[in-house]
Write a structure and sequence with these properties.
It is a single chain. With 295 residues, this protein is an alpha/beta fold. It has twelve helices and eight strands. The chain has one domain: 3-Layer(aba) Sandwich (Rossmann fold), CATH 3.40.50. Helices cover 42% and strands 16% of the residues. Helix 7 packs across helix 8.
Length: 295
């Protein structure tokens, strides 16, 4: 069940940002900001919100990126840097001073950006199933997917105007579920994400949002030269069954966090790309331990 709200922030000319937060907010507890993966929503983190240990020890705040969920902006152009800026403005609006950040896939890129931009406010980051590179030859040689080959046909398909009755094709949703979690665990889960995609990506405005999300994914900038500016602890969790980015890549890139207070990779046997969804108990327990160690 979707339980998102929206908050107005000034970035990009005044944006409405979709978010879900533990209620009521308790300023005496640490906060964990969670940033969702490509084309998903705050619903990705329902298992974490339902985890009594994690939700009991920390405020959980899932923030939806530009182009995702209930987030809307007057600007059609946005990048992952814009989401990082807006996330801080959401924190400001909700009275959150500092936080840990957990991000899945593209959410990991946002988590790293937040740690670079305001290091005094980010106490630690947990990238899940991600990469810190652009679509480089190095990345492909490390066993990661070729985002150019995957995204370019999608971008081409989304580049023509559509009518008000358009919704994203169901095959797209099935592909995301297959690549993200190895396929839905149940027909109920499958239908839920089909519904989320139809709601978020309908009509020409929805097409244009999804188009920009795909452009961002394919054409993103790499972060290798910036990773030494991350000073907080880093716990990178990566599944052995991740179909998008490889464990080998994670083990290579964690070494680039040269000034982090602590930086390590936790490999999850059988874990999928959307690790918080495929192995929620493992991720929630690790998050609770990480927060307990560094809060």
């Amino acid at each position: 069940m979707t339980m998102t709200q929206t908050v107005k922030v000034p970035h990009l000319g005044g944006s409405e940002i979709g978010y879900r937060m533990t209620q009521p907010y308790d300023a005496s507890k640490p906060t964990l900001v969670m940033v969702n993966s490509f084309s998903t929503s705050a619903d990705l983190y329902t298992p974490q919100f339902e985890d009594e240990t994690l939700s009991g020890m920390a405020n959980l705040l899932a923030i939806e990126l530009f182009g995702h969920g209930d987030t809307r902006s007057p600007s059609e152009q946005f990048t992952y840097w814009d989401t990082a800026i807006a996330n801080f403005q959401v924190m400001d609006a909700l009275g959150v001073g500092d936080a840990f950040v957990l991000g899945t896939s593209q959410g990991g890129w946002v988590a790293a950006r937040m740690a670079m931009m305001q290091p005094d406010r980010i106490k630690g980051i947990m990238p899940l199933g991600t990469s810190m590179d652009y679509e480089s030859q190095r990345s492909h040689e490390m066993g990661c997917w070729n985002g150019d080959e995957v995204c370019s046909p999608v971008i081409a398909q989304l580049s023509e105007p559509v009518g008000d009755d358009w919704t994203v094709d169901g095959d797209f949703t099935d592909f995301i579920l297959s690549a993200g979690i190895g396929g839905p665990a149940s027909e109920e889960q499958r239908q839920h994400w089909h519904k989320v995609h139809r709601q978020n990506y309908s009509g020409d405005a929805g097409r244009r949002r999804l188009l920009m999300c795909a452009v961002n994914l394919r054409d993103r900038d790499g972060l290798h030269g910036r990773l030494p500016f991350v000073t907080c602890p880093v716990l990178w969790m990566h599944g052995t069954s991740d179909q998008v980015y490889s464990v080998a890549n994670a083990q290579h890139e964690i070494k680039l966090f040269t000034n982090a207070r602590d930086a390590k990779v936790q490999v999850v046997e059988g874990g999928q790309h959307f690790l918080s969804a495929s192995h929620p108990d493992v991720v929630s327990a690790a998050a609770a331990e990480f927060i307990g160690t560094w809060a």
